[in-house]
Amino acid sequence: MPNDAREPAREAAGAADRDVRRVTLPKEGPLLVEGPVEVRLEDGGTATSDRFCVALCMCRRSRRYPWCDTSHRRRSKR
After folding, report:
1. What is the 3-state secondary structure (H, E, C) of 22-50?
2. What distances in angstroms separate CA 74 from CA 12, 69, 71, one per listed residue?
3. Taking a C-beta distance cutoff of 8 angstroms, is the pair 58, 71 a contact?
4. What are the domain boundaries of the chain?
5. Which of 69, 59, 74 is nearest to 26 (CA)?
6. Which one of 10, 14, 37, 38 has the minimum C-beta count within 10 Å?
C-alpha cells in the first residue's frame, strides 16, 4: 500500500534531525522551506540555495521563479 503523501516514509529508522527539513504551508503566499535546499524544476534543471530559509513561489508570478519575489501580494484575493 502506498504511503500517504502527508506522511513521507523514513528511509532509516531514527534518522538524524539534521536530515529533516521543515516546510511551512501558509494559506496564501510562498512555501517556506528551511535550507539549504535544492529545487528540481519541471524542465529538469535545478536551483539551489544555502540560505537558512527560502520562500518558494506558489503563484508562478515571480520574476525570480522558483524563488518568491512577493509578486503574490499584487494578486487579487478570491
Report:
1. CEECCCCCCEEEECCEEEECCCCCEEEEC
2. 43, 11, 6
3. no
4. 23-71
5. 59
6. 14
| Three-class DSSP category at 19 | helix
Residue with cell 531514527: 14
Mean pLDDT over each residue of the chain, to the nearest integer = 78
The CA distance from 68 to 31, in Å, is 9
Whole-number Cα distances in Å, 11 to 28, 47, 50, 65: 31, 24, 24, 30
Cα atoms in the Cβ-side hemisphere of radius 13 Å centred on 42: 3
pLDDT tier at 1 (50, 70, 90 boundaries)?
very low
Q: So what's the pLDDT on residue 60?
A: 87
Cβ pair 50, 64 in contact under 8 A: no
Q: What is the pLDDT of residue 2?
A: 47
